[in-house]
Design brief:
Blueprint: H1 13-25, H2 34-42, H3 48-59, E1 63-72, E2 75-84, E3 87-94, E4 100-106, H4 111-115, H5 121-131, E5 135-144, E6 147-156, E7 159-166, E8 171-172, E9 176-177, E10 197-198, E11 201-203, E12 206-208, E13 212-220, E14 223-238, E15 241-252, E16 255-267, E17 273-284, E18 287-290, E19 295-296, E20 303-308, E21 317-319, E22 321-322, E23 330-342, E24 345-357, E25 360-369, E26 373-377, E27 380-387
Antiparallel strand pairs: 1-2, 1-5, 2-3, 3-4, 5-6, 6-7, 7-8, 7-9, 10-16, 11-12, 13-14, 13-27, 14-15, 15-16, 16-17, 17-18, 17-19, 17-20, 20-22, 21-23, 23-24, 24-25, 25-26, 26-27
Length: 390
Amino acid sequence: MPITTRAKEKLMFVSAVALAFAWIGGHPLSVQEPAEWSRLLDASAYTLSQAIDKGLREAGEGVPFHAELERDKGTVVFSIDVAQGSRTCNVVLDAKSGTVLEKELEDEDHAAEVGACRIGLKAAIDAAVDKNPGRPVEAELVLVQGRPAIRVKVLDGGKLASVDIDAAMGEAAAAQPGPAPAEPAYTDVFRVEAEEWTSTGANPYFILEPGWFLVLEGKDGDKDARLTITVLDETRRIAGVETRVVEEREEAGGRLVEISRNYFAMSRRTGSVYYFGEDVDIYKDGTVVKHEGAWLAGENGARFGLIMPGTPLLGARYYQEIAPGVAMDRAEIVGLAETLETPAGSFEGVLKIRESTPLERGTEHKYHAWGVGLVREEDLKLTRYGRAGG
């Protein structure tokens, strides 16, 4: 179950750029073998530059800062990210037909970093191919030794090369043959002393106090959906640690879909909240049919993960669940000061987290408000929250 208004003084431009680049530099890189890249290219009717043009036309305006050829749910697609002032438009195109499969606006502000560049993705691609001939498969804005650069991946003769173009000067650095640089690692080892653990407390973005509840509502496909999260007055000892039980009830179309009992504990020293596993009941027509995704720390090689740091840092990456082959959810903090409107109210200083798992493709975003907790999960938004009986 990955679940106050801050001061409004604006940071100086340099600080804003540094923070933004810290995130861009940590953007997940695709991990593809050259043979897979070759198959994707052969299945595509467009070049990366042509896809960027089409993505920008679909977005309507802005500055592209990331473009990638990939396979999504069996379909070969181009994913284009376009900065539009305080927002980002993500356009997903079918690589064969050019059909728009998805277009989504996100509250991600990349105006500072794209404004610091003097060369765009397409020009960087041309410069990279001049330096290292081949077929480009990805281009993205990154930070290299403190300077903005556009990293272009080029496939040539079964080998993948990564070429960095100085985004401020438009100059190409030396090509780096072989596999592209590895993405920044996700932390999976957390040091917590035995005397630090507590099963009750309030992280600014994650509350573990009995009676606290959140209700989020929206759509699951064409069905009305509801997620109810309740901190129970129950504990359970797992791997030698007393954990708090948090129940999640998921409903779709007025029917119960899933109930999970999640187990968390907090560090008194840091305020970080850790995840020790979950028991899962999945329902069909009112009957439990399976327990997919259940795991407990200390069993079958599973270990506790970090669900919410006590001090969130932009760009931080960490595993939330560490249950090999069962649950390996991981998180990256991509926003610290989002503004979000929900039926339960307007929230500022919202924490935005991008979640993924190495067990399958795709990502999702979750938003956590100071003093409240989870306020948005994909299409579900907070409608009610508080303390039971309060």
